[in-house]
Specification:
Blueprint (H helix, E strand, L loop, with lengths): L1 H23 L17 H18 L3 H20 L16 E4 L5 E9 L5 E9 L4 E5 L14 E2 L7 E10 L2 E10 L5 E11 L5 E3 L4 E5 L2 E5 L1 E7 L6 E4 L4 E9 L10 E12 L4 E4 L3 E2 L14 E2 L1
Parallel strand pairs: 10-16
Antiparallel strand pairs: 1-2, 2-3, 3-4, 5-9, 6-7, 7-8, 8-9, 8-12, 10-11, 13-14, 14-15, 15-16, 17-18
Length: about 300
């Protein structure tokens, strides 16, 4: 009988903790905009709600609370993006909680976030909102893609989940292609950074991947649908577009144990590779940054010299 009572009170305490977490994050009790509540627009009110739901899905102590918070966040988020006024809204407070990237030509926006469901399970979420009002949910399948990510073509219903942090735009044969820079940390042993080609096809569906990457893999050139760099969990690897050199610059990584097949052992070796746009494709070159060894008393340059 005593054991049953202990179990009963434990369940009550857990339920109370769930309720308290959501109550403490209630947008009715906490407001992020400075204007009186009567002057807030529908977008302002939804943004208030989403900011505090984001705190719940990120920081709740219990795995179940984070998952519940993410479902509630998605429910309210759908209401936001279905409002046409949301496309041009600044959403500066929400942008501090999730990634919001706008295409260079203002044709679409990507809303993007990650949920740590438990110690080994991360999920990526995203929605593409077009200026014309279309909404494309992104369904993450990255956990099931063990090999072939470089050569696959994905869609919004079968998406290689990422946290995107930059967008470039190029014109190929009169059509725009967008290049998305992203990070994926779903593996227990490794992380990935990638540059993906993105378009919206004639049916209005998202297409991720195009054979316009000329890359070097283990000393051999090959065509790929995206650039993918996989490396050891926790290693610091950079990958971004350099406006001055007009190249995508990224860390060159090598296996610590001399086994090229084990990507989870790769770390930066101090050199940098690059992708240069030739008008139709990205062409990879190795060792594009000259590393200068300084003598005693010499000052470093403000910027690395690029070939």
């Amino acid at each position: 009988m005593k054991k049953l009572l202990v179990l009963f009170f434990a369940i009550i305490a857990t339920s109370a903790l769930h309720a308290q977490e959501f109550e403490n994050l209630s947008p009715v009790r906490q407001q992020i905009h400075d204007k009186p509540i009567g002057q807030l627009s529908k977008i302002d009110i939804l943004e208030d709600t989403l900011v505090f739901l984001a705190d719940s899905m990120y920081f709740s102590a219990l795995d179940e609370s984070r998952i519940d918070g993410s479902y509630e966040f998605i429910r309210v988020f759908k209401t936001l993006v279905k409002n046409p006024a949301s496309f041009d809204a600044a959403l500066t407070k929400l942008n501090e909680k999730i990634k919001i990237l706008q295409a260079p030509d203002n044709s679409f926006k990507i809303y993007n976030w990650e949920i740590v469901r438990n110690e080994v399970d991360r999920r990526y979420y995203g929605i593409i909102q077009t200026k014309s009002g279309d909404i494309l949910p992104l369904i993450d399948v990255s956990e099931s893609v063990i090999r072939g990510a470089e050569d696959s073509v994905f869609s919004n219903s079968r998406w290689y989940g990422n946290l995107y942090y930059n967008i470039l735009m190029k014109s190929v044969e009169g059509k725009y292609i967008y290049f998305l820079f992203g990070w994926n940390g779903n593996s227990m042993n490794s992380e990935r950074k990638m540059v993906d080609a993105f378009t919206i096809d004639a049916r209005g569906q998202a297409v991720f991947g195009a054979p316009i990457f000329n890359v070097i893999d283990r000393g051999k050139r090959k065509k790929a649908n995206r650039l993918v760099v996989e490396y050891e969990k926790g290693a610091k690897v950079s990958m971004n577009y350099d406006n001055e050199t007009k190249q995508i610059i990224f860390d060159h990584c090598e296996s610590q144990i001399g086994d090229p097949a084990k990507r989870y052992t790769y770390i930066p070796d101090g050199t940098y590779d690059g992708l240069e746009w030739d008008g139709n494709q990205w062409i990879m070159n190795e060792n594009v940054v000259q590393i200068t060894i300084l003598k005693d008393g010499e000052a470093p340059l403000d910027k690395a010299i690029i070939k």
